[in-house]
Write a structure and sequence with these properties.
Blueprint: E1 2-8, E2 10-11, E3 23-24, H1 32-45, E4 55-62, H2 70-79, E5 85-90, H3 97-105, E6 110-116, H4 120-125, H5 132-143, E7 149-156, H6 163-174, E8 180-185, H7 193-199, H8 208-224, E9 228-231, E10 234-236, H9 243-250, E11 253-258, E12 262-267, E13 270-276, H10 280-285, E14 290-296, H11 298-309, E15 316-317, H12 318-325, H13 332-343, E16 348-350, E17 353-355, H14 364-370
Parallel strand pairs: 1-4, 1-11, 2-3, 4-5, 5-6, 6-7, 7-8
Antiparallel strand pairs: 8-10, 9-10, 12-13, 13-14, 15-17, 16-17
Helix pairs in contact: 1-2, 3-5, 6-8, 11-12
């Protein structure tokens, strides 16, 4: 299968932890129709990219796509042929019941809401514009639309946050009736405001041990609510998993359109990844927004399959990778690394599939690197 990702580059504020392409703006300053025109033009430009594959999912990310006029979003949806899952990322400051209904009416069937925290001081630390009550209203408003699937994000591992607090916040959100939650550990990225503060030693940080305890506490709480921990940062009721993200973790093709978007397609045993123009004005005005275009050989694709697949309960299917990429994943060096990791309880092999036991998910990045 394949998916389409549309990037919307504007926000009401730039969060200090965010390293995505986004620009602070006021809603009236956005030319909603001109941006939709540019995205639809790019979709036409790249119509042969998938080599006949159909789009199974469509995801609007950002930025804050809930700032985009729903009618303009509807025009983009109409330009993509019949994806089964259509998701829009939303912030509580730009989502209420009426907005959720307007999105649903143009074809959106899933929203992902950036709650991030239910504590006022934590929200202030994270640079969020909403308060806890605003986040709860946004989630409840979306849940009131029959047929609209709703997910929300929660950040844990914040300074002075106890594992109990992180679990209680996850439980409060799940109690609203959500069937999907994404719970992310706060990560400090270079080039962000938090990254700059960390570099000079002025950013308060949570202790690693406390973060690990919070990870376990959230898992225990949400699984008691019937939400399965199906990826390191994601929980869902059976059948409510994010299909778009599952495709990404499995190594499927994704067509990235919009300002700053990345795209990836495979052609036999190799592939290519491109990135679009990061300046919104230039993106809207140009005929071909491609800024970089990188060829990927079979070894690079195999490493990505391992890195992403090990994040999920499904694991990394190296048999499928061998068939699709024409490369033998079972090299003597990798087999030795697998044996050592198995001894330490860091990885399990089931035929052609490698999985990380959930108790060792906190070490997933290091485990994947040892298998490269």
């Amino acid at each position: 299968m394949a998916s389409v990702y549309v990037h919307f580059p504007w926000c009401l504020a730039k969060c200090p932890y965010c390293d995505f392409v986004s620009y602070k703006t006021e809603r009236p300053d956005i030319d909603h129709e001109a941006y939709a025109d540019a995205v639809i033009r790019e979709l036409a430009l790249r119509e042969n990219t998938f080599n006949g594959k159909s789009a199974d999912t469509l995801f609007f990310g950002g930025g804050t796509p809930s700032l985009w006029d729903p009618k303009a979003i509807g025009r983009v949806i109409d330009a993509v042929a019949g994806p089964a899952e259509i998701t829009v990322e939303c912030n509580p400051t730009s989502l209420d019941r009426d907005r959720a209904r307007a999105l649903f009416d143009v074809g959106v069937n899933r929203v992902s809401i950036g709650t991030q925290s239910l504590d006022p001081k934590q929200l202030q630390f994270l640079g969020r514009l909403h308060d806890p009550e605003g986040a709860l209203r946004a989630v409840e408003g979306a849940l009131s639309i029959s047929g609209l699937r709703v997910s929300t994000d929660l950040i844990f591992g914040l300074p002075d946050q106890s594992p109990d607090d992180a679990a209680k916040q996850a439980n409060r959100l799940a109690s609203l009736g959500l069937e999907h939650l994404s719970c992310y550990q706060l990560t400090i990225e270079p080039g962000t405001r938090f990254g700059e503060l960390a570099k000079i030693g002025r950013l308060p940080r949570a202790e690693d041990g406390v973060v690990a305890e919070a990870f376990v506490a959230i898992e225990e709480t949400l699984e008691q609510r019937g939400l399965r921990h199906y990826e390191i940062s994601n929980y869902a009721k059976p059948g409510a998993e994010a299909r778009h993200n599952l495709g990404y973790w499995r190594g499927d093709d994704y067509l990235g359109v919009g300002c700053g978007a990345y795209g990836f397609v495979r052609d036999g045993s190799s592939g290519r990844r491109w990135r679009n123009q990061v300046d919104p004005k230039k993106y809207i005005e140009c005929n071909d927004p491609t800024m970089t275009d990188e060829p990927l050989d079979s070894l690079a694709l195999l490493r990505e399959r391992i890195m992403l697949g090990l994040r999920t309960t499904e694991g990394a299917d190296l048999g499928r990778a061998k068939d699709e990429l024409g490369i033998d994943p079972w090299t003597p060096e990798r087999l030795r690394a697998i044996a050592k990791l198995e001894e330490r309880g860091r990885v399990e092999r089931h035929g052609d599939v490698l999985r990380i036991p959930r108790r060792a998910w906190l070490f997933a990045d290091d485990t994947a690197a040892r298998l490269f």
